[in-house]
Amino acid sequence: MSKKVQRKKAKGKSGLIMLSVVGCMYLLTFYFNPQAGKEALLVVLETIKMIAPILLVVFFLMALLNTFIDSKSISRHIGEQSGMRGWIIALVGGVLSHGPAYVWYPMLSDLRKHGARDGLVVAFFYTRSIKLPWLPLMISYFGLAFTVVLTVLVILSAWIQGMIVDKFTALAEE
Amino acid sequence: MKPVFIRLKTAAKNTLGTLMMVMPMLLSVIGLMGLFKTLVTPEMIQSVFQGSVLSDTLIGTGVGAISVGQPFLSYAIGGELLDEGVSLYAVTAFILSFVTLGLIQLPLEWSLFGTRFTLLRNILSFIFALLISLATVSILGLIQ
User: Could you give the ipTM of this predicted complex?
Assistant: First the structure.
C-alpha cells in the first residue's frame, strides 16, 4: 500500500475517532442536561444549514480547479514563482472569502498539494479575520479609527506572517 | 488530453472523495462548536478577566482562541468588556484571536495541513494577536 493511501486512511480514521468522541460528549450532555443537549444539536443544525451553500461553492471550485488548472499554472499564480501577484491573490482572496475558515480548509489543502506556497495560505487565513459585512458593526462598537487601524495592521501582519512561514519552509526544505 | 467532460467527471469524483474523507472531522468540529455555544455563555467569558492590562491581554488572546461563533459575537462581548473597564489591549487581542485562532478547529487543520504548518500558523497568530493589539492601541493613542 502506498504512503499516500496509508495517510488518507489514517486521516479518515482519526476523523471517525474524533466524531465518536464528540458523539459521546453529546450523549453525556443529553444524559445530564437534556435541554442543553437539544440546544447544542439545534446550533449544529443551524451551522450545517449555514455552511452547506458555501461547502457547495467550495466543492465546485475544487472540481473546476482540478479540471482546468494544472499544477504549473497554480505554481505561476500562487506558487514559488508567483511574486507580488501571489500576495495580492492571497490577501484579497482572504478578505473576500465568505463563511467559516474550516469550510475553506479542503480547497486550500488541495491548492497546497498542487504547489501553492505555505506563506500565501497563511496570509489568506489571516486576512480572513477582516469580515467586510461586519465592518459597520465593528465601527459602531469601537469607532472608525480603531477599525481602520486594525484592518490595515491585519493586512500588513498577514503579509509578514506569510513571509516568515515561507522562510521556515525554505529552511525546512534545505 | 481527455475530453473536458471526462476530466470534469473525474475531478468531481475525486473532490467528492476528499470532502467525504474530511466530513467526519468537519462534523466533529461543528459538534464541538454546538456544545461550546450552549455550555459557555458570554458572562462566563467576561468573568475570566482580572483587571491587569498584561494578563488580560494574554487572557483575551487565550479566550478568543477557544471561543467560537460569528464575529459579531466577539464585538458584542468586546464592547461589554470595554464597558466593564477591561483594557482595549485585551479586547483587541480577544476579537483578533476569536477569528484567527481556533482551538476547536485544530484537529481538522492538523489532519489537512500537517503538524508543522498548523503549529507555525497558530503560534504566529497568537504572537501577532498580542503585537497587533499593542500596535493598534499605541497608534490610536498617537492619532487621537
Answer: 0.85
